Recover the amino acids of this structure.
């Protein structure tokens, strides 16, 4: 099989849980109130409540509704990829790396019907410099249910300037006026 760009490189080390990471069982704060994946202020968002696990692992449940359809009665694949992207990115709460998705590879193994509950889990597989490698899965109906979706991802650590340089000015100004819109303790690069 051809090597993938999300395969762990030879120089990768084990991802380490930051000593100040929230305790296992803690519902992680939304990293941004208007985030499509986890923000409470985003009316059309997924509103994922993501829970810290043991090690560098997080979980969430995702209720698939009629608003998530791609085909009649079935979830849209891109939307499922969004849920996986979110649960992968939130590993940053445990490693204290502020990362952005550089690559996301998704396998859709089973259709996901409207009305189903998808049990999501992600874990950090390794770190190489600024790169965080991670994987995730979504199981139907229970934590030991059949795997419907799987993903592997590469996140790249960025500093505050990434957001300051690229974000839309009015949204950055809103954050400056109300820093509580950002739900991370210290939004800086923290190697
Ligand atoms: C503090 C606590 C925070 C906690 C909470 C956080 C929650 C967050 C939740 C978020 C949830 C939602 C998440 C979202 O929705 S994040 C939103 C979606 N993602 C983006 O907008 C990212 C857009 N891309 C970029 O800005 C740049 O391309 C980045 C920053 C990623 C890299 O540009 P930069 O100029 O900085 O670095 P570089 O180009 O030297 O690359 C660096 C290294 O990476 C390797 N590479 C790069 N791309 C790829 C690729 N595609 N496949 C394989 N490898 C790739 C590259 O070869 C190099 O490797 P090496 O040569 O060093 O070996």
């Amino acid at each position: 099989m051809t090597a993938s760009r999300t395969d762990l490189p030879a120089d990768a080390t084990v991802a380490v849980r930051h000593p100040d990471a929230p305790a296992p069982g803690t519902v992680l704060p939304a990293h941004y109130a208007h985030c499509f994946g986890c923000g409470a202020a985003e009316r059309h968002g997924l509103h994922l409540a993501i829970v810290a696990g043991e090690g560098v692992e997080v979980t969430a449940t995702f209720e698939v509704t009629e608003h998530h359809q791609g085909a009649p009665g079935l979830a849209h694949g891109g939307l499922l990829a969004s849920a996986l992207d979110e649960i992968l990115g939130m590993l940053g709460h445990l490693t204290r790396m502020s990362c952005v998705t550089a690559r996301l590879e998704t396998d859709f193994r089973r259709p996901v019907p409207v009305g189903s509950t998808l049990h999501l889990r992600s874990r950090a597989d390794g770190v190489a410099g600024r790169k965080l490698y991670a994987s995730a899965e979504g199981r139907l109906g229970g934590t030991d249910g059949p795997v419907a979706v799987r993903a592997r991802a590469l996140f790249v650590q960025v500093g505050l300037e990434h957001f300051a340089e690229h974000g839309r000015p009015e949204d950055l100004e809103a954050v400056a006026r109300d820093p509580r819109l950002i739900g991370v303790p210290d939004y800086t690069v923290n190697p």
User: Anything to note?
Assistant: The domain at 51-175 is CATH 3.10.129.10 (Thiol Ester Dehydrase; Chain A). Helices lie at 77-89, 92-95, 160-166, 169-177.
